[in-house]
Design brief:
The complex is a heterodimer of chains A (about 110) and B (about 110). Chain A is built from no helices and 10 strands. With about 110 residues, chain A is mainly beta. By secondary structure, chain B is mostly beta strands. Chain B is built from no helices and 11 strands. In chain B, strands 2, 4, 5, 9, 10 and 11 form a 6-stranded mixed β-sheet that branches. Chain B has a 5-stranded antiparallel β-sheet with strand order 1-3-8-7-6, with no helix packed on it. Chain B is globular and about 45 Å long. The termini of chain B are far apart. The chains are: A mainly beta (about 110), B mainly beta (about 110).
């Protein structure tokens, strides 16, 4: 079946602009996660949605970052007033259980 | 603080030999551990996992060992194949109200030479 998809695959933006990154999880997966991988680093947890529960936002690095999940499916990660340190690969994952997560290909964000 | 550490950024092995990738963690509340494999320009793919109630889990050429007293886990790949060349991440999770968020190590780049 279809895996996790993310769009766009690449995004170049100017410092100070807002960006929106989209994630389509695997159908039926109740949990959705956002991570980011900066150059040479491991994956850093950002935010987690589970069903209708309030999201776990504990990993968001600043209030410029926000995410929503509409209808328990598609999710959008929004970064306002982008900074150069926001440049990274943003990865979305979904899962049915709480452990094995299935990742999308990521969105490579470059802030110039 | 880095709760999950992979101290070797890279590893090179000969085809057919064993690859051993190591991972250390500091949080004794972690109770589930996973290994992911990542090729360039792709998302990580799940490889193998282990619960803290076990000390070994095997799946084909891949075996994960967990030493809770040492807070150490390792992934053994035998025999190694050139197609195994990728970045390997270990990850840890807590059950309970921490949800399913994974804490990842920095990754180890494995190169298997023919």
């Amino acid at each position: 079946g279809a895996g996790v998809s993310q769009s766009p695959s690449n995004k170049v933006t100017e410092k100070g602009k807002d960006v929106e990154l989209r994630c389509d999880p695997i159908s039926g997966h109740t949990a959705l996660y956002w991570y980011r991988q900066s150059l040479g680093q491991g994956l850093e947890f950002l935010i987690y949605f589970q069903g209708n529960s309030a999201p776990d936002k504990s990993g968001l690095p600043s209030d410029r970052f926000s995410a929503e999940r509409t209808g328990g499916s598609v999710s959008t990660l929004t970064i306002q007033r982008t900074q150069q340190e926001d440049s990274a690969v943003y990865l979305c994952a979904s899962s049915l259980s709480t452990y094995e997560q299935y990742f999308g290909p990521g969105t490579r964000l470059t802030v110039t | 603080d880095q709760q999950v550490k992979q101290n070797s950024p890279s590893l090179s092995v000969q085809e057919g030999r064993i690859s051993i990738l190591n991972c250390d963690y500091t949080n004794s509340m972690f109770d589930y551990f996973l290994w992911y494999k990542k090729y360039p320009a792709e998302g990580p793919t799940f490889l193998i996992s282990i619960s803290s109630i076990k000390d070994k889990n095997e799946d084909g050429r891949f075996t994960v060992f967990l030493n809770k007293s040492a807070k150490h886990l390792s992934l053994h790949i035998v025999p190694s194949q050139p197609g195994d060349s990728a970045v390997y991440f270990c990850a840890a999770s807590r059950s309970g109200n921490q949800g399913g968020k994974l804490i990842f190590g920095q990754g180890t780049e494995l190169s298997v030479k023919p």
